[in-house]
């Protein structure tokens, strides 16, 4: 079976359900990103979910950057 998708393999073939539950899609500076919780209320950006190429050049939302969760909007 061949699966053509832009989603990463880890999201399609999830090994542990616990790791999936730690991920969520949030807005950072108005841009949708996929984040994963690594400490309580602390998140690491996993993926930028934008179709605008300029959003991938913003240093504050690059994958690997950390953000702190205060409420529903970052």
Question: Taking strands numbered 1, 2, ... along the chain, how are they ordered across the largest sheet?
Answer: 1-2-3-4
Structural class: mainly beta
**Poorly predicted residue ranges:** none
Number of domains: 1
Radius of gyration over all CA atoms, rounded:
13 Å
Average pLDDT, all residues: 84
InterPro entries: YlzJ
Pfam families: YlzJ
What would your notes on this structure say?
- The protein is built from two helices and four strands; from the N terminus they run ααββββ.
- The protein has helices spanning 9-12, 17-21; strands spanning 23-28, 31-39, 42-48, 66-68.
- The chain is mostly beta strands and 74 residues long.
- It starts with 8 loop residues before the first helix and ends in a 6-residue tail after the last strand.
- A four-stranded antiparallel sheet has the order 1-2-3-4.
- The longest helix is centred in the first third of the chain and has 5 residues, at 17-21.
- It has one domain (9-68).
In brief:
InterPro entries: YlzJ (IPR025619). The protein has helices at residues 9-12, 17-21, and strands at residues 23-28, 31-39, 42-48, 66-68. It is mainly beta and 74 residues long.
Write the layout of secondary structure elements.
Layout: H1 9-12, H2 17-21, E1 23-28, E2 31-39, E3 42-48, E4 66-68
Antiparallel strand pairs: 1-2, 2-3, 3-4
Keywords:
single chain; 74 residues; mainly beta; four-stranded antiparallel beta sheet; 2 helices
